[in-house]
Amino acid sequence: MSDGLEMKVTALQNEVINLKQQLQVLQDIEDIKRLQCAYGYYLERWMSEEIIDCFSNSPEVSGTFVEGTYKGPEGIRAYFGKSREQPPEFLHQVMQVSPVITVDPYGLRAKGRWYGYGTVAFRPVNNTIDPNIMSVVYEMEYIKEDSVWKILKLALQLHYSYNMRRMLGMTGEDEPAAPEGSLELHPDERAEFNTSYPSGYIYPIHFVHPVTGKPTSEVKRNARLKLKPNPFKPAE
Amino acid sequence: MSDGLEMKVTALQNEVINLKQQLQVLQDIEDIKRLQCAYGYYLERWMSEEIIDCFSNSPEVSGTFVEGTYKGPEGIRAYFGKSREQPPEFLHQVMQVSPVITVDPYGLRAKGRWYGYGTVAFRPVNNTIDPNIMSVVYEMEYIKEDSVWKILKLALQLHYSYNMRRMLGMTGEDEPAAPEGSLELHPDERAEFNTSYPSGYIYPIHFVHPVTGKPTSEVKRNARLKLKPNPFKPAE
Amino acid sequence: MSDGLEMKVTALQNEVINLKQQLQVLQDIEDIKRLQCAYGYYLERWMSEEIIDCFSNSPEVSGTFVEGTYKGPEGIRAYFGKSREQPPEFLHQVMQVSPVITVDPYGLRAKGRWYGYGTVAFRPVNNTIDPNIMSVVYEMEYIKEDSVWKILKLALQLHYSYNMRRMLGMTGEDEPAAPEGSLELHPDERAEFNTSYPSGYIYPIHFVHPVTGKPTSEVKRNARLKLKPNPFKPAE
User: Using an 8 Å Cβ cutoff, are B116 and B40 in contact?
Assistant: First the structure.
């Protein structure tokens, strides 16, 4: 009987190990979703320190935006540390939605795809908001350090960003464009191409197809496109 | 003492079975959310094969859109297989948000309600995006086959879809309407009614109230409405 | 050997207790997300009873909206019980997205931050929808009673809400404003300040920073703002 009991206990031990592993992956996914949504709330009013603290201090860290890539903790600090003192009229709402999170088998790295969607505004016009509708797709990398998930790499494709009045041809010629694009941008590496609408570019998808397990066709599709140069790249 | 130990082991075995079941439901919910969000990313540039691969091959499979229902794997293939070669200017961004997922007690079927929201665009106007804002509510059915969740039934109510310039009366008379509606549509079953705004129709909710456990009042509310015929239904 | 077995069983018991606790928190988070998303679907067509049933009957219950706070179950019932018979043209779509849910250590209370985003419409104009784009941030409190999560406190900051045509200056002078603001509002406690755009106000964040574990800087930032009086507060 004791032998039978011992076998049962061994079987239980194995089951518990499996449960722990499966539960850990779900916990990791929830923790990562929380991290990314927190990032979004901090972004709304450009809370520089809180945003920077979402990132690892690893030298691998990077942030890729429309103009190019900022590298290392200094790059992240330079990018998000600017514009610390925004006036109250500045709103940078980017809602973080539609996560697909993939934790790697060792449980210390993960990737995620998200949409970011929302409204950016710089100052009221006619006593109301002057909305810029912004939509991006993120491909993220995360790292777990001392049991805490952090952002390792943030990379985004800007789908579109349009000032509603300008899109409709309702601004005067003398009205200055929104200030965001006019900042001096000094990425460590310039983006080669303009991948915004109407480029047709599909931002490479980190996850395989959830049913077939196969890679998806965006690389092949993108290869057919004739992308234009990135407008932020200075002429050589 | 050995008797006591045996009882403890039996109790543990039962606890582990319960934990496994509870964990499996959470895992199923996460897997289904992942599937649906992946579907949304594939929809953005109409990646036909990837979309079709999200569906089961069961004869029960169907897709219900504004014009009616496409049935069986052939119906899904016919619907999503069209328009494979979209020009780069085509964007069909539908962000999948606000999931309520209900796994049935056997763990092999599930239902889900989601919002789909985003921007559809066909070509640039005045060198910028010409946004069509689209909002739908989905009621989904999922099936687990060989341990993999797939879409069994996709059904949507179109809340509204408006071209921003047209809604504001800012298009010329000679400007063609967006091409989407002009496709020839051949659903296996035509939708009877127009349930878009301002019909007041509440798409039937698959889940009971999370607090009371009771069915909700949309059936009774819908019965009071005078719905108009579906505009896609040909005159008989 | 039996001694060793006993130790293994004791270790397993402890592991199973830990697993149960960890799993319960994930289950609670999923249940709360489900509750909040269900709330959003009921809100779309102002399903009064279903909305009210999402709340606890505790005297602690409250709902805080732009004009102030409604207290107790009667306050919730007064607020959501009004406007029961909306015409079909009324749409109040508020998609619930970007959750950060924090369950307290005893597992009977929780907090959550969400964005609500969507389209409110009162009647068609020019045979199409007349969209009011609305964006709020929620800070929620939840309570678990008899194993069921319910809303204890719902509080929101209105980021912005704009009628698209009015924002663009495209309505006639004689056109009445949307009816929502003209309802008589009788909160139990009036809101002091106008925290909508462009106030710069950051709605206090219930959660500490996910990486540093520290409180965030919004209290300090808000203190620097000169907020205007709440427009719904009657002159004394």
Answer: yes
- Per residue in C30-88, pLDDT tens? 999 999 999 999 999 999 999 999 999 999 999 999 999 999 999 999 999 987 789 99
pLDDT class of B233 with cuts at 50, 70, 90? confident
CA distance B167 to C131: 9
Structure tokens at C2: 């039996």
Note the pLDDT tens digit of each residue in B185-224. Answer: 899 999 999 999 999 999 999 999 999 999 999 999 999 9
Locus of tokens 């060792």: A106
pLDDT for B121-140, tens place per residue? 999 998 899 999 999 999 99
Is C182's pLDDT higher than 60?
no
User: Which residues of chain C lie closer than 8 angstroms to B210, CB-CB?
Assistant: 31, 34-35, 38, 54, 148-149
Token pair 């934790």 is found at A103
* Surface-to-core class of residue C119, CB atoms within 10 Å of its CB (0-12 exposed, 13-18 middle, 19+ buried): buried
Residue A88 CB coordination number (10 Å): 17
Interface test with C, best of A5, A31, A34 (most C CBs within 10 A): A34
**C-alpha span between A141 and B88 (Å, rounded):** 28
Nearest chain B alpha carbon to A137: B41
d(CA A30, CA A26): 6
The two most distant CA atoms of chain B are separated, in Å, by 91
Distance of CA A71 to the CA centre of its chain: 15
Question: pLDDT-derived band of residue B31, with 50, 70 and 90 as boundaries?
Answer: very high
Chosen for mutation from B5, B37, B115 (greatest number of chain C CBs closer than 10 Å) is B115
Q: What is the model's pLDDT at position A233?
A: 81
Cβ-Cβ contacts under 8 Å for C171 (sequence gap 6 or more): C163, C165
Mean pLDDT, all residues of chain B? 94
- Counting beta carbons within 10 angstroms of the beta carbon of residue B214, is it exposed (0 to 12), middle (13 to 18) or buried (19 or more)? exposed
Q: Which residues make beta-bridge pairs with A231?
A: none
- CB-based contact B225 C49, cutoff 8 Å: no
Tell if the CB–CB gap between C97 and B100 is shorter than 8 Å: no
Rounded to whole angstroms, how far apart are CA atoms C53 and B19?
30
In this structure, what DSSP letter does residue A179 have? G
Residue of C nearest to B226 (CA): C88
How far is the alpha carbon of B59 from chain C, nearest alpha carbon, in Å? 31
Say whether B96 sits in a helix, a strand or coil. strand
Percentage of residues in chain C with pLDDT exceeding 90? 86
* Cβ–Cβ under 8 Å, residues B136 and B115: yes
Amino acid at A78: A
- What would the pLDDT profile of C122-149 be if each residue is shown by its tens digit? 999 988 999 999 999 999 999 999 999 9
| DSSP character string of B171-212 | S-TTSPPPGGGGS----SEE--EE-STTS-PPPPPSSPPTTT
Query: What percentage of chain B carries pLDDT values higher than 90?
Result: 87
Say what the pTM is.
0.96
How many contiguous H segments (helices) and E segments (strands) does chain B have? 5, 10
- Contact list, A48 vs chain C (CB under 8 Å): none
Partners of chain B (3+ Cβ pairs below 8 A): A, C
State the complex-level ipTM: 0.95
Residue of C nearest to B136 (CA): C93
